[in-house]
Queue: 2 jobs
Job 1
Amino acid sequence: MLDKSYYDKADEIIAQHGADQASLIPIIQDIQAEYRYLPLELLSYVAGKIGITEAKAYSVATFYENFSFEPKGKYVIKVCDGTACHVRGSTPILERLYSELGLSPEKKTTDDMLFTLETVSCLGACGLAPVMTVNDKVYPAMTPDAAAELIQDLRG
Amino acid sequence: MGYMTINNRRVEFTDEKNVLSVIRKAGIELPTFCYHSELSTYGACRMCVVEDERGKVFASCSEVPRDGMTIFTNTPRLQHHRKMIIELMLASHDRDCTSCAKNGVCTLQALANQLNVSNVRFENYKKERPKDTSSDCIIRDPNKCILCGDCVRMCEEIQGLGILDFVSRGSKMHVTTAFDRPLSATECVGCGQCRIVCPTGAILIKRDMDPVWKDLADKNKIVVAQIAPAVRVAIGERFGLPEGENVIGLLVAALRRLGFDRVYDTNFGADLTVMEESKEFQERLASGGKLPLFTSCCPAWVKYCEQKYPEFKDNLSTCKSPQEMFGALLKEEARANADKESRKTVVVSIMPCSAKKAEIKRPEHFTAGEQDVDYVLSTVEVSRMIREAGLDLSNLKPEAMDMPFGLASGGGAIFGVTGGVTEAVLRRLVGSHGQETLEFISSTGIRGEDGIKEATVNLDEREVKIAVVNGLASAGKLLERIKAGEAYYDFVEVMACKSGCIGGGGQPAWRSSKAKKSRADGIYEVDRTSQIKISNENPIIENVYNGILKGKIHELLHTR
């Protein structure tokens, strides 16, 4: 069971969009924006409030890669692994970040909840390849060393 | 209304919803996985593809018939497509057919055979997922799922529950519950309608055959069978007998050969239910008790009401269901005779239902620390046991049930079909007993296939309003209307499965609505040909009320 404040926040978001079926996606997007993930408890709560089954809500939320049921770190790092970034060396960057952060394709978030590392298929910035983003700020023409340095900076 | 040309033959169509129905009407059995006439059209399996005269290929289930259409159903191109689809399905399917419970009755297997698929060239890249055996009624094996979505639409559209849905996308897509919870942790009521439409072994009814075999072989046990009304008009289908034929005599003969010591009729239990439920209804009417009175025979409905509409819990009749009343009575008799009979009595219910498997485990269905009914076997399980013993129902000679509890009224028999409980209770409550009264009751509007049927009947100068609900989605609608004050009833019958128990989750899957209609006709024939029509006229009922039930009516026959 989540803290009551989560449900109050969800109520607020539902009120903004209107408690009807068609609002499911905007509501859960806002919840995810608020908490950097979509708590399952809230997904189930929203389903009840807007009158759809939990199974339907779960079905919609799992359809989109962007919804995450796991809490994410303070810094969400997205390494682009689209075609352009891939050929210009995104894999060494990714591997360096995995070792730097102690993460893997299965373990995406550090235990201190500081970093989440994900790959994305294309960020639409192929001219800047290889590219990565930290909380949506774009870092162009990366190298493994630059990525490691960036992590050090973020750790402060 | 118009004409179309199918394979160079002119075919008339009238109000068919789609081209597929016209093709089938013309006698061509196009294969399908995801098309069921009572569910919404999904158009996913693409087995029903046809080609028009310009070579356009489309799914016939999703196309409205138009006058002058020209289509072909069996061109080399279509044959190639269909085979390829099956091959791809088989590639990601757990193909361990020999040990699959659906072996021999699987649509995927049948179509692979029908379309002469002889080779699967692709590797299975699907991640193996665990079976869900948590429910008392239903087993899910995701590795057998072909993603036709029939269960998803059945649960949502017909049963109004929506327990299952598609999860994830693309090659990771699978059908599961919300948050991948085990089925036992969901609001699944165990009706088993998902299993009826599932074309493969992905959804099965839980089996209890092994412990029953063991007890049948145990010399220290008396194994008593009770057979529900709807079983006798469906089990014959599994042995090539006509749809809807009442094969009770053959079934009794088979059960004796399997080793059952006594074979009784759940219709007798239904007679007991009529007695108690009519009494309860009269009392509630007279004392201003909680109305409407909801029937409680259907365990899937009882669970649904408790979960979704707990505010109506007290409206549920306190009567146990027929199998439970009968089980409690049989066990009480065994306890009373314990000094003369050292063998332990085991009660096995043979039911058209999967939810009954969970019902027997509810705490109110234990008396003196003992479970009133020990096992529930579905119609399908019993047909398998008969076959396992090397018997064929159609080769046996009919035998009569054991006395005294093999005698039941026609009122008990019609419990197996929607509206039957209401009809039987009305027969008991309406004073006069002539043919005219019986016909009047049957024509009040409580028979038939509608989701919600309404009737008004005069009982002791009082106008009594009745609703009969056929299918759980309709139950939800009716309860919402009652809650909102838009409708008022005194008596509400609910059967979770469409058509009633004849369409239960433990029955052989029917291929058409005609098959279900034949079962209903079979049940009504049992009623028409019984000498006793009304439960209280069953002489055995009087005997048990004056005998074994004396002073114990409430304890044995009611839940609270």
Note: The helical segments of chain A are 4-17, 24-35, 40-50, 54-63, 83-87, 90-101, 144-155.
Job 2
Amino acid sequence: MIGHPSFHRLRAFARGESTGRAHAAVAKHLEGCARCRTRVRSIRDIVDSVRAPAARAPIGFDAIAARAAAGERVLLPVEEPRVTAPRHRRGLIAAAAVAVLIAGVVVIDVPEAGAEKSELWITPEAPRAGATLSLRYRATTRLDDEARLVVRARYYTADRGGPPQTVAIGELLRTDGAWFEGSAKLPDSAVYAVLAIEDPDADFVDTNAERWQVLVHGDDGRPLFDALFARMGDVRMRNTRLADEITRSMVALYPERPGAWYFRYGEATLDIPRDAVDSVRAEFRPQLERLAGAARMAAVGPDHLWYLIMFARAMGEREIADHWRDELMERYPTERPALQQAVFRAAESHSGDLDGYLATLDSIWRSAPDEAIQAAASGWQAAQRLGRPELLLRWSERIEAFRPAWAPHNGLLLVRYPETRAEGMDRLRKGIAALDAPGDDRPLGSSAAEYEATRRRTAGLYLAALGRALLEAGRPRAALDTLDRALETGWNPELFRAVADARLALGDTAGALRAFARFVADPTTSAAFADSLRARLGAAAALDGADWQAAVAAARDELRRELLGASLNRAPLRSRLRLQEPAGAAHEVRLDEGQITVVAFWSRYCPPSFRQLDELDDIADRLTRHGVRFIGITDEEDAAAVAALFEREGLSFPTYLDPERDARNAFDNRSTPSYAVLDTNGRIRFTGHTAADIVRQVAVLGGPWGGLPQP
Amino acid sequence: MHEQARNALDDAELVRRARAGSVDALAELYARHADAVYDAALRLLAAPADAEDVLQDVFVGLVDALEKYEERGAFGAWIRRVAVRRALMGLRRERRRVDAPTAVLKTPVPDPTRRITAREAVAALPDSLRVVFVLKEVEGYSHAEIGAQLGITPRASALRLHRAWKVLRNRVGMP
């Protein structure tokens, strides 16, 4: 071992978690290093000190007896949460989910931008269903040299919960200067749409933070209730303020709709302390009583009753909710809202009894197989938890009748079991074929290149899973062909490892060496893991150190060629950024100062971005120690809120507010999470949405390679 | 029940009697395990009032919860895990919204003039780091289990542990 072991290794040693070579290496190092011995002792002392009993119960049993005597009940969380088994293929499935997520990057709301901001004027302001829109567009810098532009829309229909569709709906032609004009026709079934403008090759997409939103209006001049509903569902995860406003519009425009009050109540109670809920409930109770009274007086549809039930439940009015649930299920037993309530009731009555729950779901599904989507989805989830292949197959088929696009994902689950391997492989093959064919489901914010990269990555994961399934099915030749195809889909360490394992199992040590070398060469692979792999492979192939080093060096060259070959090389739109520190001070950054720089846009209002903050913090910590500059940019306007968030979450990466929109304009950034990596000349070489890619991209630009400590 | 007889009973017998409605048996279980339950909750929550709530809730709800206790392991370990989950429920409720504007740091601010103890340093960690540290290093959960408890990935759990140690090392002045 060269130098001192990382703190991570010392901790694992001190806590008895390290094994094998890693453990032996630390033990040997400790024999001659007093500093590390002290650190190991400190780690043990700290843990022992925190573990030692220190506090005594401050109350006697009398307090408990008094509460119990008063008839109080407390429902304790007795069930252990289910832990996902740490199986290798789970990683593939998780990665597939990530690949799908990348395609649907959540976008922040940019209130106003600077000179580069584009504009889109849409008329009429209150379009009817299927209307033709007149559009006038002033292009963003990246599109202003085009002669013709394409208008695309992600649109939602009145089918609540159904996935939106994304299609081209019109085109724009240059008129004079930077202005374009044209028209676009809304699909007849659309109630709400988000528009984006792009060049004909889809190299760049201007979504303007998805602020170009169109609400379909009715003959009475009001936006349709379904349009408001779809808009709220679209924005609520990225803009809580706007979601709040939309629910206010809902109750103002549609006070007779329980759905409007249900959503308004949800927003009104979202951020308030627990002890303030009662007073909000008191404010809303007259509305619930009014709506329940109206439902008694007139015939109302199943949808109306469904929201009345949900509103009552949210308000804690169990009796009212149960009454209307019975009414709904009696009046409309085979309609979707009633079937959905039947599923909710089953979940309540079978708490902890998955088999009983599934049996009830089965009878609900049989009562109306064409409508019971909730039963199919819940049964599919329960079957996964039970892990019984015959049930998983049955419920996969049922949910796929409603959601055919889920079939390849089900394939990843089904190939785990010998009993359903054939059905799983069939689904994976169809998924791969669909990805080979030209796609027509490019998400609104994705360029053609991003879309293609996502499809290739997803195809790689399906091919890897199929290859392993073929291997387990006793078809090694077909397995290797399939795995080789998987490798062609791009640099993917998870895939390399899967292929290496397969080749090793087949006795192909040379092929395994190449694949393992790629896995180890990746800068995100930990040094300790690389050591253990080398030992494993060395035992199988009598490998000497020189062979291994040569294979890893060749793999690094390959990664360099692959990433740099596809890299960008463009200057940011401005080189000087006027930013603000969370503590309030102004902070100026020059991007052309001869340093590799990572600029990371994040938002606490964007769940995918918020989930990456832990990883971002770790990456920033590792890279800055190697001389890489890291600049986090938040869309937050309140500096104190950022400081409080960092304190609360224990984050420490360098982050700044962007009050002048300098950073967002410099990178034409419209989304989070989103990253740009600049080379030492200050030119943008990579952009992306996945934190893990940053380490790889920095490495090929001359940053640290491998050997980085992993947590 | 006489004092001497009560002491002679093991936890399994007390559990059986508590299930049958014996308040004395419940009181004896409280006497034996209340300190451990409170201590575990206090480590996680770093707020005595919240830990006391957990202690009360665990024992008020114990009779109902015992219906699902399968007696596969020691009762003390089981009730401690229930207490941990109950404590986490409280934390989750408080942190339901990441942008909750009223979030207030409730951890004690250490006095800079004296050397801080490890336990104080852990109590002063941000919630998200302290919970992972305590679950991993004190309660012995795996990262996969912590992930399942907190609704985060095992990797996120490992990253938080790494950060928790980083902060602790600075605060206690580890070499």
Note: Chain A touches chain B through 68 residues (CB under 8 Å).
